[in-house]
């Protein structure tokens, strides 16, 4: 029913004009023309100053076996408008029909990882869990969970992600469980009696009664086993969510249960995180991360090999010539430098050598670098968030 990964790698999942273009190039003997094509973004979403590069591992697997050299910034790297994030070098016929798949592999994960990073930057040390699988087709579950996690989410809810990504999924309970039992206390008790001990006892406390009332019932039912409560109050009953959280926290304080954490979920976005981060202990975020503003990466030829040399050449509106990107950490902020491929390496303001971000990952279709695990990429992203502003 669905296309296989082999179908994608063969160029079947592509826009029809790329297939027609390849046919024309082959007819006129131009498919072996050597080019350098650059992936970049010329316009970030409104109010965005940066994005987080994601999807590199899958992109390399897409291009693997083709007669191509590929340079890229490491997955998880924070980049800006106009920064080159990938450079592909080789015969144009080797990748023309893969452009659609390549950009899809890079664009969507980059958009998701960027939104997750923004949310994590705002949430700070508060727990951020990705709850967004129900917002998209299940075939995308792996892509969404991976991108959200490496972007900065502390955990994801996808059950299959533990097998695919090595990420321990987190989650509490749905309203369905409580409605089927007909009584929240019976549902919480059944959860406690059924789940393994390492599963946190976090009670959903807004199904049938007031949040404060159900919180007190949860404490009464689970006692010291209760580690947290989750508020997923629908918008039709929400009112001032901050006041609800404050009321629940106050109630827990009055009965000596400051140890019980309060988690909030349900339609949250950046403004909600800012409004609640000083009173809530954690957040479950779904749709706003799963369907973020798009980081519109594009692929454009920037050089063509003619007369035994590389000639800068691009469509209008794009900067011709292959480029390199460097970064310095100066006075607790990142400084970026983009230079022509053959230019000397720039110097940092303190006279030191900058970090070269554009690295060679593929040579003649063979991946030549070891690729990091998702938890390593996430750690890299979190480290960078210290040195950038929203």
What is this structure, in a nutshell?
By secondary structure, this protein is of the alpha/beta class.
Structural overview:
Helix content is 35%, strand content 22%. The chain starts with a helix and ends in a 5-residue tail after the last helix. The relative contact order is 0.16. It is α/β, with parallel strands linked by helices. The mean pLDDT is 96.
Secondary structure elements and pairings:
Elements: H1 5-9, H2 16-27, E1 34-40, E2 51-52, H3 56-63, E3 69-72, E4 78-79, E5 86-91, H4 99-123, E6 127-130, H5 141-151, E7 155-156, H6 161-165, H7 175-181, H8 184-194, E8 201-204, H9 211-222, E9 226-231, H10 235-238, H11 241-254, E10 261-265, H12 270-276, E11 282-285, H13 287-290, E12 298-306, E13 309-312, E14 323-330, E15 333-340, E16 355-356, E17 359-363, E18 366-367, H14 374-385
Parallel strand pairs: 6-7, 6-11, 8-9, 9-10, 10-11
Antiparallel strand pairs: 1-5, 1-12, 2-4, 3-5, 3-17, 12-13, 14-15, 14-16, 17-18
Helix pairs in contact: 3-4, 4-5, 5-14, 7-8, 8-9, 9-11
């Amino acid at each position: 029913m669905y296309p296989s990964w082999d179908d994608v790698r063969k160029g079947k999942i592509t826009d029809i004009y790329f297939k027609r273009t390849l046919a024309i190039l082959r007819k006129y003997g131009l498919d072996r023309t050597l080019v350098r094509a650059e992936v970049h973004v010329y316009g970030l979403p409104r109010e965005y100053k940066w994005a987080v590069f994601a999807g590199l591992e899958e992109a390399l697997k897409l291009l693997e076996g083709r007669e191509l050299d590929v340079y890229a910034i490491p997955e998880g790297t924070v980049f800006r408008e106009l920064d080159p994030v990938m450079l592909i070098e080789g015969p144009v016929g080797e990748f023309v029909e893969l452009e659609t798949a390549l950009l899809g592999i890079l664009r969507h994960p980059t958009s998701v990882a960027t939104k997750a990073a923004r949310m994590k930057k705002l949430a700070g040390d508060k727990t951020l869990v990705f709850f967004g699988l129900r917002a998209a087709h299940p075939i995308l579950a792996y892509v969404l969970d991976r991108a959200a996690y490496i972007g900065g989410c502390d955990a994801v809810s996808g059950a299959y992600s533990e097998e695919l990504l090595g990420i321990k999924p987190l989650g509490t309970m749905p309203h369905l469980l409580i409605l089927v039992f007909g009584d929240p206390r019976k549902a919480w008790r059944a959860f406690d009696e059924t789940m393994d001990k390492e599963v946190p006892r976090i009670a959903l406390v807004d199904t049938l009664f007031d949040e404060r009332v159900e919180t007190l019932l949860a404490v009464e039912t689970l006692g010291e086993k209760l580690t947290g409560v989750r508020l997923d109050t629908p918008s039709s009953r929400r009112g001032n969510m901050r006041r609800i959280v404050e009321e629940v926290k106050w109630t827990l304080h009055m009965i000596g249960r400051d140890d019980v954490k309060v988690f909030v979920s349900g339609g949250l976005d950046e403004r909600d995180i800012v409004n609640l981060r000083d009173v809530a202990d954690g957040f479950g975020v779904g749709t706003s991360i799963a369907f973020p503003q798009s980081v519109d990466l594009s692929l454009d030829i920037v050089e063509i090999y003619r007369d035994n040399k590389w000639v800068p050449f691009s469509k209008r509106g794009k900067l011709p010539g292959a480029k390199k990107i460097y970064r310095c950490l100066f006075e607790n902020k990142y400084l970026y430098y983009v230079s022509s491929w053959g230019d000397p390496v720039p110097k940092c303001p303190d006279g030191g050598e900058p970090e070269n971000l554009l690295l060679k990952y593929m040579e003649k279709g063979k991946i030549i670098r070891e690729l990091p695990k998702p938890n390593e990429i996430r750690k890299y992203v979190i480290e960078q968030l210290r040195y950038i502003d929203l």
